[in-house]
Design goal:
It contains 11 helices and 10 strands. It is an alpha/beta fold. An 8-stranded mixed beta barrel has the order 1-2-4-5-6-7-8-9, surrounded by 4 helices. It is globular and about 50 Å long.
Length: 290
């Protein structure tokens, strides 16, 4: 933003408009090959209950190992794929990888949920069937799949997404409103959605240590969420002090660097194993040492 550029330190290098356009074009043209050449990855970040300190599940986060541009983050490539209508390919890839992982964990006795981020653009009429087929293919119970849609994605102007959301909910999947607090959703609107979970945007959670306003916002969302019978997740939990404050407010679930960064499946499995060794409690059971 202009304000940020004005107040920050002097920038030594700013990519030119031409360079940004080249990079965008590389992403647009490179996505198809990235899928077929196996350059997409999914990292998994655990979520833990604030009461029992147990691992409940993971959120699947897309990564792109670009052969020339290096490791790319979704904040850069997701908007490009949304704009070009290629986002459905990413959603399908992440869904397939995550359900395969969920199946593997399930077979090893770990009943972990997996949360997949959706772009509202992929919520067309055919999407619920695609999800049902993927659950079937991997033999994963629908209740282990959480689908996350951003608050702006379910705003009142996006009525067209409602039938697909209702069908996904009817399949038994859980629905979460992501980045809550940043959009315009009214309480009345949330009540009309088949939603089970709200995820408080990490900007408020990160601010809890220093901004009393953020503490008030987080408390209000926790209370409102519980009034509506929703599970409340705080993301961006980086400090033990914030985790304690969230637990005291009655927030249900924490996600953040304090617990773990997003990890490749193999590293997450090692992390889960080391937890089980340290505390003896398998993920999904009460009393883990997280
Ligand atoms: P999100 O769904 O809100 O995911 C949480 C983001 O916060 C992740 O960023 C995660 O790495 C980051 N995060 C987690 N804990 C902390 C913390 O303690 N501190 C800080 N500072 N950050 C934390 P990431 O992986 O870069 O993803 C960014 C966004 O990209 C996601 O935000 C989501 O909206 C989108 N995204 C990721 N994967 C997909 C995907 O497969 N499909 C779609 N449509 N969007 C995706
Ligand atoms: Mg999310
Ligand atoms: Mg979020
Ligand atoms: Mg986000």
């Amino acid at each position: 933003s202009a304000a940020r550029e004005g107040s920050g330190p002097v920038r030594c290098y700013e990519p030119s408009m031409g360079e940004r356009a080249d990079r965008r074009l590389a992403l647009i043209r490179g996505f198809g090959p990235a899928v077929t050449d196996g350059h997409l990855r999914v990292h998994y970040q655990p979520t833990v209950s604030l009461e029992g300190r147990t691992v409940l599940g993971v959120e699947a986060l897309a990564r792109w190992e670009h052969p020339e541009l290096g490791a790319l983050l979704p904040d850069e490539f997701v908007p490009v794929l949304e704009a070009t209508g290629q986002i459905g390919g990413l959603t399908e890839f992440v869904l397939d990888e995550s359900l395969a992982a969920a199946r593997r964990w399930h077979d090893r006795g770990m009943r972990l949920s997996v949360a997949v981020n959706l772009s509202v653009g992929s919520l067309d009429d055919g999407f619920p069937d695609l999800v049902a087929a993927a659950l079937d293919r991997h033999g994963v119970p629908a209740e282990l799949l959480i689908l996350e849609v951003t608050e702006s994605g379910v705003s009142a102007e996006r009525e067209y997404a409602l039938p697909a959301l209702r069908r996904l909910h009817a399949l038994g999947c859980r629905l979460a409103v992501d980045d809550f607090g940043t959009g315009q959703s009214s309480l009345a609107h949330l009540r009309r959605l088949p939603v089970d979970t709200v995820k408080i945007d990490k900007s408020f959670v990160l601010g809890m240590g220093t901004e009393t306003g953020d503490v008030a916002v987080v408390r209000a969302i926790v209370e409102m969420g519980h009034t509506l019978g929703l599970t409340v997740v705080a993301e961006g939990v980086e400090s033990a002090a914030v985790r304690t404050a969230l637990a005291d407010m009655g927030c249900d679930v924490a996600q953040g660097y304090l617990v773990s960064k997003p990890l490749p499946a193999g590293c997450l499995e090692q992390w889960l194993d080391s937890l089980a060794e340290a505390g003896g409690a398998p993920p999904g059971a009460e009393g883990g040492p997280v």
